[in-house]
Structure formats: C-alpha cells, structure tokens
Design a protein that fits this description.
The structure is a homodimer of 410-residue chains.
Chain A lengths: L12 E6 L5 E2 L14 E5 L1 H7 L2 H5 L30 E3 L1 H7 L3 E6 L9 H14 L4 E5 L3 H13 L2 E7 L4 H9 L3 E5 L3 H15 L2 E2 L8 H15 L7 E5 L4 H16 L8 E7 L4 H7 L26 H10 L3 E5 L1 H15 L5 H15 L8 E6 L16 E2 L8
Parallel strand pairs in A: 5-13, 6-7, 6-9, 7-8, 10-11, 10-13, 11-12
Antiparallel strand pairs in A: 1-2, 1-3, 4-5
C-alpha cells in the first residue's frame, strides 16, 4: 500500500545545517564538514514530529536509545545497527552526596553500555546512518573508547574500520578494536597526531572520515543521554548537569536534546546549568570560558590520568562554550589527584567503580559546592562516561597471597 | 492506615525449603544450608501472587530486575540495594547463526550489568536480602566476578566484605574488590581452597557465609535472567538455552524461573532444553550427565581459559543435573581452543566481545548443531555471562606503532 501524506515517519530528519554559518546541506547523502570548516548538525521537522509522537507513547517502547527514533537520523528501522544500547540507569547517590554537601546527587551510569562507555551511543547511531547512506569503510582517530565502540559497531554492520589511537590510550581498547577485526594503529603522540594520520588515509584510501564532529551523526547518538535523563526524571530537567569534556560532543548533544525537547513541547523552558569538566593538565575549554572567548586555543603538553578528555583542541569548542554560556553553566578544571580521590571515595561509599573522566565530575562538584556555585539543594546529575573496569591501572591493588589451608587473621 | 488482608504485597516470599530433602525453614531469619548439607531454596505463595500480579502490569515497570519483585525475596522496596541492574538485551545473531547453521540464534548479553557480569544479579538480590535480615558482614570465595559483584553491592549497602579468590582469577576483579573497600585475599589454589579459608574465617570471625548456594538468595537474583528472557520473547520459552556452568546457580535459577512462571500461569507448559556447557579441562557435570549419575565427582587438575567455570565440584551439582534431565537438555564440554575461536569469530561477525565462558556456549552450539542435537530451526538462546573487556588476555593484540606524521600503507 502506498504511503499516505498523514503516515507516521520513522524519522523526521529534514536537513543538515552548519553549526557556525547555518549553511544548509542535503541529509540524503553522506556529508562531512561545512565548507566553512565547521561541524554540520542534523535538523528535524519538529513541528510535524510534535504532532505525531507524544512522550506517553515513548514510555511503552523497548529500553534502548532507539525509542527516540523520530528525532534520530536513521530513516528506516531496518537500517538500525544495535547491540541493545541505551536507557542506562540514573542512580541516586545519597551517601556520597551527603559527603559532598549535595542533597540530591545522581549519576547517569554510561558504563552499562556495549563496550563499557558512552561512546557506544555515537557509534550505534553513526554506524547505522553511515551504512544507510552506503558507506562501506570508516576511519577515525580516538583516545581509545570511541575507536573501540566504532570498531565494534562497524563489525556488527559488516563495515571495515581503520582506527588510530595514542600509545597511552587504555590498553583494553586495543583488544576491543583487534578482536572486532579493525585495522588498528598506535601513534606515539596525542589524538591530534592520530587525526593527521587518519586525514591522510581518508584522502588516499577511500575511508569515510568519522572523526569527532567531522560527520553529523555521532552527536545524534550522544544526545540520547539527554533524552533519557529528561525522560527518567519525568520529562523535566535537573538544575545542573556535569559532563567530562574532551571533544565535547556529549555536552553539545545534551544541549541539542534540550533545545529539541523544548521545541517538541516535551519539557518546559527551564534550562539545566551545563558544566564542562576538564583536567588541569588539559583545560583549553576552561581557559576559554574564563577569558570569555568564543573558541579555545590548543593546550600545550596536554597530560591527565583522565585520558579520554586529553583533547588539546576540540573542533566543536565554540559549541561547547555556547552551550555552557547559554545555560548559565560553567567550565572547571580539576587535578589528577582529586580525580583519583573522587573515584576511590565513590567506590567505597556507593559501590560504583567509574572511569577517571566520570570521577573528574565528582571532584568538580565538590569544588563547586565549596565555592557555593552549587547549592545544597540543587538537583545535580553527573554523567559517568565509562566503566572503571576499563581502567585497571587507576586502582592501587596490594593483595596478600595465601597458601592453601591458610588462616585469615582476626 | 493499617494494611488490609487484600493488600498487595511487595514480595510473596513464604518460606525456605531444602532442595534435596524438602525440609522447611523460616525465611524471616538468616539461614545457611539445610541440616542435611544441601542448599535451601526460596518458596513463594504463587497462588496468591498469580491473583495479584499479571504480566501486563510488569510491562509498565522500570527496566531492572526488580520489576519481578513479587517473586523476589526482598520484603520491602526500601531494602533494595540497586545499581540499575537488569533487563539486559536479547540480541539476534543472524550472521553468526548462519555460520553455525542455526537460523534463530540469540544472545542474552549479561555483560551489560554493573561490574560487567551476570554476578551482579545474585549480588543485588543477595546483598539486599542479607541487609534486610540484619547481616553486617559477608564473606565468600570466588573465581573473581562474583567477589567483585558482592564487594561492590556490599559497599553500596554499607556492609563489610571479605573476599578470597585464586591467584589466576581475572586481574580486574582484584581492582573491583579493592576499590570497593573489601578485605581481599588471593590463594595459590582453586576456588575450593578459597572456600576452605572462607569457611574457617566464617566460623571464627562472624561473617555471614555467602558462598555459592550456601545462602538461599543469590539464586533468586540469577533466576531473573530467565524471567527477563521469557518476557523479552513474549512470555514463552525458546527451544534451547545454553549456559556456561561452573557452580551452576544461573542454570538452576533459570529452571526455577521456569517452574515458577508456569505455576503463575505466565508461560505455558513447554520446557526449553537446558544445556550445561563446561570446558574439557573441568567437566564434572558433563561426566556425571554421561554416566547418568545424580551428583558429580570432584574433577582433578581442573584448568581452563574459561576461568569462571573452573569449579571442580559444585554444591548444587544435583540440581543442575536435575534441571538438565527434566527439560530434555544435555551437558557438553568444549576445548579451550574452540572457546577462543568462537570468541574471535563472534566478535568479527557480530561485533560482540564476550567472555570466554559465554564463548564456550557458542562452541558448544556449533558442536551440537553438527551432531544434529540442535536443529536448524531451533530457537536457541546463549547466555553470555560477562563482558569481554574484563578478559584482556584472551585477545592477541599485535599493533604497529607509528611516529607522528607517519603514513598508513594502502
């Protein structure tokens, strides 16, 4: 039966639009950056979507990020490449919150996603859309987890992948790429050096470049963090969201989710204050925020235990700064020492072993509470971007070895 | 307002019953083994529960294992210790299934649980119930993942924990115990040696013994794997379920879920054939199954890459054998070589990096299909008990290291 004008659509994707100069692009073909060099953002027919889907209906759908398919870019359900990703838990932290002086502290635990990190969201949506548009080979630089996720979803989709990561990236992410059959290289440098190698390979070897924000769809996956959070607390927003910021796609995604949900009438006008958390060893966004700049400058000699946010210069820095500024948020840097301290204290107090990037947000929350920027009764949500089990070297393990038949002292 | 006789109860827990001699025990106090030395099983007032909860109602509840609270042992919602566990995805494996000649192959991916393994289910329910009954300190031997999960949930609950594991247990599980503040020891031996050390500590130091099947509630958590699976395919059962079997609690739990769901009228009379999968280096259940024995004999010199199922003698062996026998299932052992092969092939074909214990089930499925025990059109579900990211040493990673500005060859 031919489709009728009133038929429900799987996706209300309309076009792509430059995040800086607002130039429009056709979403029916694979696109990279705008000619002005900036990232493209997916735009939807939200007026039509608002008429055809309500939050009540979403409530009855399976607990994956695909429950928001009307405002995701994949046009057909048949194109979806899924490993069951999404609807990660939002967990109250009453005892740790009490330690920090925050009475309503919660964690959105993105460690419970395929590949153990939030990167699975961008990869699921990005790979699905790439395959839908006929892409067969993808390439990307990564600080580890994104490469692991994209290699995994590429394998699931039957695509080839080329991944380049710094030698200091978490070791387990190498295994994830290797076991998925990715073409994997390490580089003795940082993510920018990996990016240069990938750019060269893309130009010569016919890979689609899926580097951070160089294609428009990863961010669409990331925005589902925001959608889920808003749904989980009853289609409203918390007072503050803290987010560990490297490339910043997740934060931009949450901000995009916020604006789209407002346009759809799914949430009210209130904005959560978005906080970009970085490490003192690599804090270009924080410096730009403090200097009231629109963009960041490359950070020299970047180094932090929170390796995932070791991004000296992010392509989307202006969008991160805009999101933080528009929402009345802030950007803050914390030391590696405070990151590891927060990681240990959270695990002892609440039983959650999280990644150092996530832990940075708790260190930041403590600082912001001390300065009074966070109030005691603020509803605060920390996004933990990955599972601690991917970071064995962050824990100091000193264990006695017993022989058979030994006795444990009182 | 005082409760009325017709009030809905959070749990229909009624009593404990010995799995071997059927002796009854009071569920209102903490209990260990039956005086006959066998495990106690939780029994519910299923007739009453059937009248007061329907599957339609469950469908609208949050996606955690606590959605089945009426047939879980925790009496009050306030007692629940949760990190968002449950409703792991059931994922079709069309391409890998085609390779194995199984047209309807699915995986229940338990890697997407807190602590990255199915052990979180038993720990969440076991710790919740222990705390509800006033327990303050728990102790257990473990092959790694159970200890990590119980240490984690103990920290969340504010309980002390003592964990003893073999030196060969996955290294990451040490970090998980340590970061949670557990008292952790390694033993130069196998899980039985750890168990002897724990038994001594329990007798002397006042810990509650939460060893496999030595308390009645871990299995209640594990049975939710079955409950979720039945719900996910529309409150019915598949033809075959393959399960990696060490202590066997998960398999016994699925069998218990099956019988309870039948009694509740939630599923029909059909039974899935339950398959206990072991490694050739430690296959006591398989040997007992082949010899038509009711219990197993201790396996000498146990050793396999699938460390989680290195259990030379399981306390619940007779229950595993009964579950396999009653359902028309079987027990089968596979080699370490075939386990690692299945792990790699699944990752390349479907993008899923699973633990060796889960991979053993795919190696078993391939063998059972070759012998004709599995038919081409059987609906087959493999339970993957944990995430591959906890097992970095199972992947051979050979990666070229490039210098900055290098070029990738065509």
């Amino acid at each position: 039966m031919p489709s009728e004008p009133g038929d429900l659509r799987h996706s209300y994707l309309d076009r792509l639009e430059c995040g800086r100069c607002s130039a429009g692009y056709d979403a029916a073909v694979w696109q990279g950056l705008c000619t002005c060099g900036s990232p493209l953002l997916a735009r939807y027919d939200l007026d039509l979507a608002a008429k055809q889907v309500a939050t009540d209906e979403i409530a009855g759908r399976p607990p994956t990020l695909w429950r928001y398919h009307e405002i995701l870019p994949v046009l057909s359900a048949d194109s979806v490449v899924s490993l069951g990703e999404g609807m990660t838990p939002l967990i109250p932290l009453p005892r740790f919150g009490a330690q920090l002086g925050i009475s309503n502290l919660q964690i959105k635990d993105e460690g419970l996603l395929p590949t153990g990190s939030f990167k699975a969201r961008g990869a699921a949506v990005g790979v699905s859309k790439a395959r839908e548009l006929g892409v067969r080979r993808i390439a990307m630089p990564t600080n580890g987890n994104a490469g692991a996720a994209w290699a995994t979803y590429a394998a699931r989709a039957g695509l080839e992948s080329l991944i380049v990561m710094p030698v200091d990236a978490p070791a387990i992410t190498r295994a994830e790429c290797a076991v998925s059959g990715a073409r994997l290289y390490l580089v003795d440098g940082l993510i920018g050096d990996a990016g240069a190698i990938v750019a060269d390979a893309v130009a010569r070897l016919g890979y689609a470049d899926v580097s951070t924000l160089k294609e428009p769809y990863r961010i669409e996956g990331k925005k589902t963090m925001g959608l889920e959070l808003f749904e989980q607390i009853g289609w409203r927003v918390p007072d503050v969201i803290l987010y560990p910021t490297g490339g910043g796609v997740g934060l931009i995604g949450i901000w995009k989710a916020l604006r789209e949900c407002q346009a759809l009438g799914w949430i009210g006008p209130k904005l959560p204050r978005l906080v970009a958390v970085q490490a003192t060893g690599c804090a270009p966004i924080v410096r730009a925020f403090e200097e009231h700049a629109d963009t960041s400058e490359p950070w020299p000699d970047a180094r932090t235990i929170a390796f995932g946010i070791t991004v000296p210069k992010a392509l989307g820095d202006f969008l991160v700064l805009r999101a933080v500024g528009e929402t009345g948020g802030c950007a803050i840097a914390v030391t590696d020492e405070s990151i590891l301290g927060a990681q240990q204290r959270l695990a002892r107090t609440e039983g959650m072993f999280i990644c150092p990037e996530g832990a940075a947000c708790f260190a930041a929350a403590e600082r912001l509470r001390q300065t009074g920027w966070l109030g005691q009764d603020d509803e605060v949500v920390v996004v933990n971007t990955g599972a601690g089990i991917k970071y064995p070297t962050t824990v100091d393990v000193q264990v006695p070895v017993l022989s058979k038949g030994a006795t444990i002292p009182a």
